[in-house]
Structures are given as C-alpha cells and as structure tokens.
Amino acid sequence: MIFDQLKKSDPHLRFLAALFAAGISVLLTGLWWVQIVTSRNYRENLETQSFRTIRVPAARGEILDRNRIPLAENRPVYSICLYLEELRKEFDAAGQKEVRGIRAELASRMAAEEQRLGRELTPEERQRFKLTRKQIDQIYERARCNVVSNIVARISQCIRRPLSFNPEHFTRHYERERVLPYPVAENITAAEIARFEERSEIFTGVDIETQAIRVYPHKDTAAHVLGYLRFNDESMEGEEAFFWYRLPDYRGVLGVEYAADRFLHGRAGVKSVLINHLGFRQSENIWSPAIPGSNVVLTIDLHVQKAVEKVLDEAPLGYRPARAAAVVMDVHTGDVLALASSPDFDPNAFARRISEAEYRHLQSIGAEKNRATQVHYRPGSIFKTLVGLACLEAGLDEHALYQVQPYSRNPRYGGIVVGREFRDTVSPGLYDFRRAFIRSSNAYFIAHGLPHLNRILALGRRLHLGELTYLANVEDNTPGVALDDEWQALAGTRQEVPGSFPDEQTLRSGWSRGETALLCFGQGRLDVTPLQMTVLACALANGGKVLYPRLIDSVEPMDPLLGRTRLVMPKGRVRDHLGVSQRSLKIIRDAMRDDVADNEGTARFARIDGFQICAKTGTAQNERGGVIDTSVQTTWILSFAPYEDPRYAVVVMAEGGLSGGETCGPMVKKIYEALLERERMGSAATLARSY
C-alpha cells in the first residue's frame, strides 16, 4: 500500500519519505563513527581510567585525667592547598608555550646552520634541532613548577607570610600523589585565613584544607606518662593491607599513646578516587567512613601531677635540670595519682615533627627516659623496711639491744666485719630495732639480716622485684578478678624495666656472706625502680597486699552513639601478698612514723604538723662498669600517710642528692602538702580511696 502511494506523484509523501531516509542515514553514520572510528579513543579512555583507594585516618581518641580534664586532644589545623586537577589547563598552557618557544628557537638555529653550510641538513642532522620526549617532559615539569611557584608567591603576598617553594618536593608529590591536595602554607592562623578568604576568588585550584593534629595542652606535664606520636605510613592490624595513597596519620611510640594505641587510633576509612589516564582526579566517593578512636581515662590527677613536677623542678640539687622521679599512689586501689620524671620534654614537639637538633638535645640530657619506671637504681636503706620485716618474722625481739662496734679506721662511726669491714652511718652504741631503723644503722641490719637471707629473698619475690609491675599492661588474669578480653590490647608503655633481684641461679653462682651483707642495706646485686618501691610502700600501708599499679581507669567511646561499651579496669587488683603478720607490719609502720616524728630520725625533714607521715630514707652508691661511683649517689624516701588510716604512698628519688633525708625529705613534704590542699579543694572525683 505504501509503495503504491509513493508511485503516485504525491509531493508531501515523497518529502516525508526523503526526510525519514535522511534521518536513518544520519543515525547510521553516527553509529558508524562512534562504534568504528572513535571506538578506540573511548576504549583507551575507559582502560586508562581506574580507581585508587585513599586511607583516611580516624580521629584519635583523647587522653583524660581522672576528672576528665584533657591531657592529649585533637585540634584542627588549617592549610592552604593546591588542587592539581584544577590547574591542568594552566600547566598545559605553560608547557605548550615554553615548548613552542624552544622549538621556534631551534628552528631559527637550524635555518642559520643551513645558511652557514649553504645546503639543507640531512634528516640525521635535523635530529639535533628537535626535542626528544624526555626533553619535552622536562620542559613541562619546569613549567608546572613555575606555575606553582607563582601561585605560592601570590599566596604569600595575600596572607602576609613568607612562603618557600621546593621544586623537588612538588615534583615528587606530582609524580606520586597528584590525586591528593598539595599543601603550600601549613598551620595558618585565623588572621591568615581571613586574609586569604577576602581574596580567594582570584586563585584557581586553591582552597583551605582542615586536618587534625595531636595537641598536649599542658605541654611537658605528664610527658613521660602520655608519651608521644610518630608519623605512620603502615596499615593497622585488621585494615586493608594496601592503599594507593595515605593521608597523614600517627602511631603511639611511648607511654599511654603507645600502650593504648589500639583503643586510641580507631578504624581508618577508605575513600575511592577515579583518576584519568594522566593521573588527575575525576571524581571521588567514600567506601567506608572512618570510625573515631576511644577516649582513655587515666587515674592521674592533673593538679597533683603538676604539683609533683614542680617539686622535682625545684629539687635542692646542685644542677639543672634535676634528674629525679616521684610516684604517688592510692594504697588501697593502686591508682597512680602522679608519676613524674625529670628532666622531661614537650610531646608537642614530636606531634609537629621534632627537628634533629631538638631530639639530640633531649637525648643529651636524658629527657626521654622515664626515671620512675625505665631506670633502675640501688634502693639503699629504704630496703631495710623489707629486711626488717624478714627479721621480725624470723623472731627478732624489737626491744633487744644490739651493740654497734666502733669502725677500726674511724671510731666515731660504727662498723661490722663480714669478710671485710663495713663502715656504719651511725656512731657506736646500743641500738634496739626502733633506734636502728630511724637512724638507719647498717651494722644492725647486717647483723640481724645475715641469718635470714632466704626470708629476705622470699619477701622480695612476693613483692615481684626483678619483674615488671605491668603499669599499663595486663599480666594474664589476676586471681578472683575478671578482666574483659579487650584489655589484652594494652601493650605496656615501653618505658618499664624489671630491675634485678637475686634468683636461685644467682645464689648458686658463688653468692657470699659479703653479698648478703650488702643486700641488707640495699646495695649489691639489687636494682629497683621508684614505681616498684611505691608498690612496696602500698603493701606496708594496706596490710601486705601487693597491688598492680593502676594507670588506666577506663576506655570509653568518643561518641556514645557508636554503641561501644565502656571498659573499666578493676580497682585494687592484688598481685600477691607479703605473707607477714600484722604485728610485724605494725612494728615497721610505727618505726616509719617515728623516723619522721623523732628529731633523731633521718626522715624528720618530711614532718608536717597535724599529719602523721610514715617514711624511710635511703642513700645508695651507684656501680658503673663494675666500679662503685661515689661521685653520684642515689637518694630516696619511701613513705605513706596518714599513719592511722593510710591513703597515699609517695616515693621520691633524686640522683646526686646529699642524702635521702636532706634532699628527698623536703620534697616529699611538699608533695603531701599538695595532696592535702587538693583534698581541701574537693576534687570532683574522689582523690583517694575511691573504691
């Protein structure tokens, strides 16, 4: 029918038929062009486009003191960055312009050469006047650097801050990470932000990026407790092992930042970026959002910590900075209320990437070492508390008198012969247990301790000397105390050493009576940390319970909506018992009280009217390379208070002091005064005995 109509001379129908045929022809031609002629281009573009994964770090959890005061937190920092994909046209235009100019110059030189020779150059000779692919790439690289250098100069003028441009650094970023923004002005101030925003419309491909940085608002306060971070470019446990690109992230290196790193760092997110065949970003989307880390709440009281650190800074020593340490613990819960070491450092320096010169200085003064846990010392006479317990348990009559004999080389001092003659610190005369304790007679404790080496060693083992205290770690399971499995993630501070204490192998390897004599007044093969001695002070105060020090109180989600449960470390975890009678403990406690209260006591400098402190001082010589170094001695005071109802244990150690009493006595007095002042202030969270 249709063809019959077409055979008739109907101009309208013929026009419609022709129009239809033309449309079909255009459509078929277009399909041929797309599918045949340009299909290769589309296929190449599709093949050269690809996805790249970017690791997006999670917000790091905060570290808080026991009253929820931030000790380590995150603050936004702002940087002016270049988005290189938006500068492609400028890069290409600059590169093409420079290539054209160089080619024109080369063509001019080639013409001059032909004129000089009077002939045309051969194809081989013409190659000398052509740019190679490598040369063109170098020209484009130089052009890109010029474009960026000019932008940086304009930004510098805009924000009124001198900015430098490093071509090598930019080229490395362009070749490896051009998908990511390139920072040109980091950590800009509010005033600089305002100046930039006023004129931001004149810049192409330039904007402000926000990034979180770790900040320690109290600077060097509790530095050794908190530790510090270091730049990290590795995947965390449980993450995808491979990422094309990584935004800046950090990992804990020391202290709580290290011990609780798995709680603090959260889970990184993944961002996907579609890039073209030139490596520029086309689009992006988030595959999985970052999940922020948890907050870690410490047992530290910021006010007490600051007071203790001030005491160390003002220590009566003949050099600065002081080399000293102090620990304050709750005798019933094991809560560490303060743990200080001097010299210290500012962890903010590590957060902003410390310079090599700064780091060398910290190493030269030994600031990185935590002297409360990471350096061990001879305890000296504070060890007589444990030796005295062993003797009392063996049946020593505390009222019986012992005659201290004169020292042969200087009769003003007492002495005792055990293989060789030991000089005493007291004068010859009659001493009962109390007087020998408060005046710290070496001869008395040697004479009574020699027969009871096994008891002394047994008490030391129950105190777990020569072992870690597990300050921010979990040692298996405490009997009778249930711990969540998550606590196994605690890794310790990397700042604790076990010290040394004689074991069975040591005794079998030629142990002598002379070495037992040294042990009786805290010398010889014995090294302890201030934290270990604080655990001893707690045991003397609480009836013989050897506690795990408790530094981390709880781990709680930064955002309650995340649905994570709050983990609480149990208080008062008992590791062991001294296994001595309450009678023996009372005799020791009474002697420690009198050491402070009696004018003959070596700890009298710690006295506070109306507040009974129990203490024992000590002065020990250090051995370096097997030789006793008399020029640098370790001074100590081990204490707890108040006598009737103990709440606090305080231990202070200072290198190079005059004596435990004269150097450390006034220091411990100031610490107790700070604790009493803190109690009067009425802390939001109970300072001690909150169990």
Protein model, in words:
Strand 22 and strand 23 form a beta hairpin. Strands 2, 3, 4, 5, 11, 19 and 20 form a 7-stranded mixed sheet that branches. A 5-stranded antiparallel sheet has the order 13-12-24-23-22, sandwiched between helices. The chain contains 23 helices and 24 strands. It is of the alpha+beta class and 691 residues long. It has a domain at 84-177. The model has no long low-confidence stretch (mean pLDDT 87).
Total number of helical segments? 23
**Rg calculated over all Cα atoms:** 38 Å
Which regions have little confidence, pLDDT < 50, spanning 5+ residues?
none
Main sheet properties:
7 strands, mixed
Helix/strand structural class: alpha+beta
Distance between the termini: 103 Å
- Report the principal-axis shape: elongated
Strand content: 15-25%
Helical content stands at 25-40%
Number of strands: 24
Mean pLDDT: 87
